[in-house]
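User: Let's play a game. I give you a shape written as tokens, and you guess the letters that built it. Ready? Here's round one.
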């Protein structure tokens, strides 16, 4: 009996998935993926291959990695939320924002007032 990946007679390959070759420090995400993060940034592995990376403070690319794990069916939302240490509703918002606006939707909006503040005469005289 042949034990090779390809059978010469049928041309079929085995249904065994690749081995999960990821660094030991990687946090598992479902059966196929894992996330590794440190002070230099992070990376997502799928079946041992690096598929996403981001640098320190590069939150939009980190969010993109989380969204893509769910959108590609690689992992369930709850698994991604746990591995990325975020609340499930944050992942839901990221997926919605990415669907509506692409990568631009994953960039934090500028914080602060939305319009100019008007100074009343009373406050102006006090100043």
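Assistant: Ready! My guess for every position:
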């Amino acid at each position: 009996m042949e034990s090779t990946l390809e059978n010469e007679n049928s041309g079929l390959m085995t249904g065994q998935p690749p081995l999960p070759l990821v660094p030991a420090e990687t946090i598992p995400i479902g059966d196929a993926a894992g996330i590794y993060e440190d002070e230099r940034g992070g990376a997502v592995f799928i079946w041992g291959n690096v598929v996403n990376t981001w640098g320190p403070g590069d939150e939009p690319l980190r969010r993109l990695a989380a969204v893509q794990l769910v959108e590609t069916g690689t992992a369930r939302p709850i698994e991604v939320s746990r591995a990325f240490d975020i609340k499930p509703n944050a992942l839901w918002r990221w997926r919605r924002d990415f669907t509506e606006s692409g990568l631009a939707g994953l960039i934090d909006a500028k914080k602060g007032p939305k319009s100019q503040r008007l100074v009343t005469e009373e406050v102006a005289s006090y100043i």
